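$ fold --in a.seq
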Amino acid sequence: MSSLASERSIFDLMDSSRYSEADPKDLECFSKIFKVREHPGTLVVSEELAEKYGGLAGERRQRVLSVTNVVITQQTLFNEERTKKPQTFFDTGVGLDDPTSGGGAACDFCQWETLTAEDEWGRVETANVVTASNLFKAHGLHGCLLFKHHDPLQFTSEQVSQLLSAADEWLQQAHAVRPDAQHPLLLWNCLPRAGASQFHGHAQIMLSSVDFPEFERLRHGALEYASSGSKSHVDPEAAVAQYYRDVARAHRAVGLLREFGTEGDKVQCYANMSPLKDMEVVLIGRHLTSSAFATALHNILRCLIDDRGVRTFNVGISGMALGSGQAREGSQAAQIAAPVVARIVSRGSLKSRASDFGALELFGGSSIGMA
């Protein structure tokens, strides 16, 4: 899976003729969920400014495109010119700088048996992954998933599969200890720019008794979307499942959806039309321990790292099932349950000291230079 979609521009969304052969029902989903608007911009460039940054002096026009997911009120602004913004803050050191000089005795996570804490139920351990209790908890049930090798950018499909399996087992054990905790979240921050405090490859796993605000907003939006025009009660899990089915269809309508796997274990992924950050890919599967889900997640990350040059990224996974009463192994019930969803984003260049999150991203919505 070296390429997730054929070369195209987000601005193609303004040309409906490009999608004349799309399934009408897919296009209906697209029009219900996404609103696309173009916002032309004009500026006057002086001779001095043109000489410094290149281009022509005089009046210049730019195309800004807004793509809004009206169900979850998420908006992204696109302008290819933003890729040319001058960066005056650069790290003079090596971008991929390991403060432990290769791990070993200098790395806490390489010395996990003695230099990491255990959860009250102990550890989950596989051949390539081991869990630890987070020393600085964001929630009462907050653990770490540690690769047993040091390099955060080198991992195989089997190692990713074991990371997800260890996360699933950790969740089941945590849920058994505290049955009221029913809201799971898996986070994978690669390198400090993405929020990691350790160079060593690792992820975090949490289980909360209260829902995370982002997913509460998703649930409310999905319920409103599913109940539109209907007076009957809509189950929240079914509403979320319907929403993701329709979002996938909307992306298929414009050629951004890919499907992988075999019957009974299929996944869908798409390049998000309203991304939170650069190069966002969304992966939808049935359960965390699905072979297709693990393989697709590995392939997406390797595509970003090996083909796109990404060195720092975030992964967030939600929707994991808890307990034996829910469909954890792809059974028939999983077809109506809310899916497991992974969101993967790049966090920019390691060489730049400028933050990729500013006031616009925090308070006004996402702004993407790539088109």
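$ fold --in b.seq
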Amino acid sequence: MNWQEKLQEWQNFEDLDLDLKNELDQVTSPVDLEDRFYRYLEFGTGGMRGELGVGTNRINNYTIKRVALGLAGYIEEKGITACQRGVVISYDNRHKSREFAQWTARILASYGIKVFLSDKLRPTPELSYLVRHYHAFAGVMITASHNPKQYNGFKVYGSDGGQITLETAKRLMSILENITNEFTITAKSQSYYEENELITIFSGEVDQWYVEELKAVIQNQNLVAKEGKNLAIIYTPLHGTGKVLIKKAFSTFGFENLRIVAAQQEPDPNFSTVVSPNPEDQAAFALALEEAKENSADLLIATDPDADRLGVVVFKQNEPIYLNGNQIGVLLLDYLIQQKSTTNLGDYFLSKTIVTSDLGTKIAEKNGIQVRNTLTGFKFIGEQIELSEQKQDKKFLFGYEESFGYLISPFVRDKDAIQAATLLAEVALVCKLAGKTLLDRLDEIYQEYGYFVEDLETKSFPGKDGITEMVQLVERLRQKEISQLANASVLYKEDYELGTKKDLQTKKIIELTLPQSNVIKLILADGSWVCVRPSGTEPKFKIYYSVNAISKQSAKEKLQALKTDFHQMLTEI
């Protein structure tokens, strides 16, 4: 069926949701109509995410019901036990999130699958925890994480509380290919399934369960209970789901001097006070900074709408300093190592992504900790935890990625901003009691291990041929022999699509053990690197840079030289 036929199908459906019908009547551009109907929204290991609106290539009741039906079919294939173990469902503050969660619950229940449904919005990491707590077969989180207000999504979790594996995603995609009439998918009322004990609503008690587990994150509970009130913290949930758990956790552990930005504390699907509800974006901190300065705060923290990412600002002579994702991760890792110094650190492993700074690697290896690099995406870090538990070999110490995602205690199997905020507050408190700041500790780390500086760029390819142009450029980069960048020899080219690591001096090829992914990484003689990772769905790719040097200034200069040389090379190939 082509897009015109699919459009006609929607136009002819008499019971089309009224809001969607009105929206469809307003869309007149053939280009816009084609974009809305030329395909179904893609479903992958991260689930499904897209703009809200009318069409098969948008998030709406009908596309959500279609994916819910696909998930029901997958669970049915796994047998009666999988159906009885059931699915935990939660949702964030976005437009239609609650409605989508309820539809998902009803569709699953209509196939005899047990559902545990949240009574209100909750963070993504709490959903991950609850899948494990209920020993459920799967979990669903309705969220678009840190995307702008016009987005929503459907994220699927496995029985370990981690995002689904590639194998599971492929099977789900295969099932979805055979679901081509979203208008025939229906279910009885939610109350019917509740009365028949197929849908169970959970409420506030689960928050207390989560906070009890969170105690494992605090390294020195007595110190925090006694001195925590002396750390002045400003927090913004950026209109999302984080407030309830952060407030409950901080008051429980002793961080009593917590102020929540009033204008941003309540859930708001429009994210009215920010352009983008993303703690990676410095602009998102504007209101919180005003409050922090008025109240002489020691620490400013922000969580994204589903509370899986943490942003941090500290102050130097009353001026705000934004910590990047690598710096936050290194501070947490360093503190965990200090606190476990009396244990055998060789029993532990650190997991991080291949685009995350290698400063964490240097710190871990110096302390005898195994480092496990993964592809981009926290699901791969979760898989490493599960693998270790099955093998009963190394214990999980910490997992992080440069995009502001962290995990300390594996009772959750996805990035968890509540865990990260709790531990970072403890680190900041310990520093303050020693007459230092987080910046002072970061400088001490740099002095010991070298100065690491990172950057991230996005290169877009506009126009109808954008994706083709991007693919061709990446392929030329794949074929290009590069000997030098920024006055340093390029020692290795790692190509995760081919699964190879090539020594550019000896021409020897080593096989990579990570799953296949369209990523190319160039590693220089001094340990600096540049990595290109194309989007799988959009005409753009990300360029990650990481350099290190003996001083901050020389590291910055080296970064600029690397960026200049790499840009020049891209224009020449």
